[in-house]
């Protein structure tokens, strides 16, 4: 899922959970109304944990959204106090540079 979207929507989680249960019928939950509600919830938590690991490794697409409510620094300020909360449906996305490119090369091309 992370290969397609770092921050999937509710519908994306539902589609993946539904496909998982359809592919492997033995995973269907008998107490659930749809049979895959628990898997949808598990996928949400797994994606959150995976984003945390990617943020710790320094991936730019999730690092830009992390740290607003993180640990405090010595002077008492949050580490990323100036980050504004994205509007609904908007993600602070900062793509990585293409292979062999940097700021200077892209500015010359522009």
Explain what this protein looks like in three dimensions.
- Residues 71-80, 98-110 have a biased composition (Basic and acidic residues).
- Residues 65-110 are annotated as: Disordered.
- By secondary structure, the protein is mostly helical.
- The protein has one domain (10-109).
- The protein is built from 4 helices and no strands.
- The chain has helices spanning 10-23, 37-57, 60-63, 103-109.
- Helix 1 crosses helix 2.
- The model has no long low-confidence stretch (mean pLDDT 80).
Q: Can you count the beta strands?
A: 0
**Domain module count:** 1
Could you give the distance between the termini? 33 Å
Proportion of β residues? Answer: under 5%
Cα radius of gyration in angstroms: 19 Å
Give the overall pLDDT as a whole number. Answer: 80
Biased composition (Basic and acidic residues): 71-80, 98-110
Region (Disordered): 65-110
Topology record:
Layout: H1 10-23, H2 37-57, H3 60-63, H4 103-109
How would you concisely characterize the structure shown here?
It is built from four helices and no strands. It is mainly alpha-helical and 110 residues long. Helix 1 crosses helix 2.
Essential attributes:
single chain; 110 residues; 42% helix; 4 helices; mainly alpha; 0% strand
